[in-house]
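Narrative of activities, Objective 1.

The group set out to show that a structural description can be obtained from nothing but a protein's sequence at a throughput compatible with the screening campaign. Below is one input-output pair from the validation batch, recorded exactly as produced.
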Amino acid sequence: MAAQRRIVRPGVAATALGLISVLALAGCAEDSGGASTGAGEGLEIGATKEEYREAFADIDPITLNTQSPGPKGSATGKPIEDWVAAVEDWSDGKITFEIAFSNAVAEPIEIDDALNDGRLDVASTLPIYEPSEYPANAALIETGFISDQTVVAGALQSNAWPNEVAFSNDEVMAEFEDHGLVPLVPIFNSGAQMLLCSQPRTSLADIKGSAISSSGTAQSAQIKALGGSPATVAYTEVFESVERGVVDCANATLTVGVLGGFIPAAPHATVNPEVGFALAPGGWSFSKDTWDSLPLVAQQLMWDKLDVYIASNIKDKIWPNTAEAARLVRENGGSFQDFAPDAAAALGKANSALLDAVRSGDGVEDADALVDAAEDAAARWFDEIEALDVPAEVGYQDFDENFKADDLDMTAYTKLVMDKIWSERRPS
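Output recorded for this entry:
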């Protein structure tokens, strides 16, 4: 029986092997436009499970390590667990993963370092936490509010177009490579960003002077435009901060609200379907050292199974957390409200200024082209989603009662995004 293979970087002991979190691999091979590849023979796109299992027959066992932001079995960590299970199954057990839960190996801001120093092999990276280290990524992320803010179509659209733009921008991709990362999914989000407050706050008069947690410079600018005062508070501390009156609202997704447990303290949500807040997305990334050491067929399998990760991020994370949040909001006397006209207008004006700031900024060499690409991709992907004949849009308030994840077969969506975004960058 072949000896089990563990991925060890030079100078790093096997016991320090990193955890694995998968990002969409950048298409940086100059000759083919595809991803960088490992040694060995591969399979054609569309290979079946049986073909993959046969291809792995002579591959030595590979153990990789990853971590999940949530506890085992939580909706927040489901995309990672589902992707891991699919890769293990399709490789006939030749690739296995050791998962640490609740960010046990590295805190979010340290994950890219952990991927480089051997503590992790693949994990969820967060360039938004280090904008000076990832200025091109930060510029793209700051355009994220142009996505639709609805629960169903918005989640599908906003998890597609930013990846198209990221993969197509040389400077965004170069930042990943410069940091020793291979992005499998450059950008994924956890749903629309909104205000979650201890009391109803929908108008400029309501929001004026309110302390509101913020996780990025764009969000801080939006909060100031509404008359609020941005504050830096980790999501794990929001509940206590709201309870003690340190902050009045959190600017967060419902996924973060459920994960952080603060919705009961801040059950009054304000969200507009068209005018949104900047997101704080993550990416699913591999250590480049580890990735380059893998056989080509292993790279291809992990790439091909990204359809599982992409679908699960929406169907098994965003929507279940939205349903749970809707229940918690009602149980704690809250509701989902739209911004009053004056606040919606102020936020829209701030968003226009933010796009202008990205255009005039130095995050990328051709910032105008980046913003143009983002606006074009967002519009096209909204049309693509509408053409899929998704179920009629439902509101946030009773989402748990009016929509079930199984109401939408994700197959057509994942095939669309894989065909149009990921397939041409598949390792070969």
